[in-house]
């Protein structure tokens, strides 16, 4: 029996190598085509906003009262709601990142719930809680406090839908902080509050800023919960997304101008988050 190992002829080897190169080239072309189609699908609608309106019409629309009112209200309410989320969300994120207590999984689930909750459901839930006949609102109404269909309702809706974006990012940032630094501070006599303020939060600062920026962007773009709980009143509850919905029916240039502003803010948010994420690592 011949024990000489089987060897392929050079022609067969070259043929198989050619087929492999053709297969790789075909796969590369397929992936490139899929990527190009997806990028086209994402960028074409955004680019169409800029192509649909002239610079003159854009600047003219910025002077419209509905645009100015919506822009100023959105920036003010989103800023305030983000501040509220940071103040109340930071301790919660720190506790959940550093302590294991009974019911923590439930707290995490409830914290993340607004992310998956449909905006309309969030709006009607807020209305049933804080409306004039709501679970809490009925008692507030007895002392003359009414939150539904006011600017306060806008802020409450934004806080409700935007808080998970900050809390999730903050929790992840705190978990990424090496406990060695915290333990060293404790051995030097630092109190838990001092450790949090002087060690943990500064080390997680980049992630906290990223989470706050994401929360601001989510609050700025909120629509469903706001229109259900706060209504759509110009100068009082009509934020930019609501103004786009309203002006689409009569002033398309104003709607496109507001949309372009939101696109620019969204792009700035993404760029800021990427910069802060790189710095945090």
Automatic annotation (TrEMBL):
Q: Where in the cell is it found?
A: Cell membrane; Membrane
- UniProtKB keywords: Membrane, Molybdenum, Sulfate transport, Transmembrane, Transmembrane helix, Transport
Q: Which InterPro entries match?
A: MetI-like, MetI-like_sf, ModB_ABC, NifC_ABC_porter, Sulph_transpt2
Transmembrane intervals: 27-51, 71-97, 109-131, 143-167, 195-217, 254-273
User: Which positions fall inside the ABC transmembrane type-1 domain?
Assistant: 71-271
How does the protein associate with the membrane?
Answer: Multi-pass membrane protein
**Family, as annotated:** Belongs to the binding-protein-dependent transport system permease family.
- PANTHER family attached here? SULFATE TRANSPORT SYSTEM PERMEASE PROTEIN, SULFATE TRANSPORT SYSTEM PERMEASE PROTEIN CYST
Task: Give the protein's recorded name.
Answer: Molybdate ABC transporter permease subunit
């Amino acid at each position: 029996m011949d024990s000489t190992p089987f060897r392929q002829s050079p022609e067969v080897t070259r043929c198989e190598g050619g087929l492999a190169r053709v297969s790789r080239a075909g796969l590369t072309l397929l992936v490139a085509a899929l990527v190009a189609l997806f990028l086209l699908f994402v960028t074409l609608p955004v680019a169409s906003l800029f192509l649909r309106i002239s610079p003159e019409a854009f600047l003219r629309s910025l002077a419209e009262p509905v645009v100015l009112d919506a822009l100023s209200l959105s920036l003010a309410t989103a800023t305030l709601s983000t501040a509220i989320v940071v103040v109340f969300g930071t301790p919660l994120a720190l506790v959940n990142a550093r302590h294991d207590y009974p019911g923590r999984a439930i707290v995490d689930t409830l914290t993340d719930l607004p992310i998956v909750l449909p905006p309309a459901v969030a709006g009607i839930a807020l209305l049933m809680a804080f409306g004039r006949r709501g679970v809490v609102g009925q008692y507030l109404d007895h002392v003359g406090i009414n939150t539904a269909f006011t600017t306060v309702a806008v802020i409450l809706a934004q806080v409700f839908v935007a808080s998970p974006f900050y809390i999730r990012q903050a929790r992840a940032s705190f978990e990424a902080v090496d406990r060695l630094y915290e333990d060293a501070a404790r051995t030097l006599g630092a109190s838990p509050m001092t450790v949090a303020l002087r060690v943990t939060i500064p080390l997680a600062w980049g992630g906290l800023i990223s989470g706050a920026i994401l929360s601001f962007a989510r609050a700025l773009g909120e629509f469903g919960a706001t229109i259900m709980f706060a209504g759509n009143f110009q100068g009082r509850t009509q934020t930019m997304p609501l103004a786009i919905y309203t002006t689409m029916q009569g002033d398309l240039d104003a709607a496109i101008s507001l949309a372009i502003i939101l696109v620019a803010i969204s792009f700035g948010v993404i760029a800021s988050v990427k910069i802060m994420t790189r710095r945090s690592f």
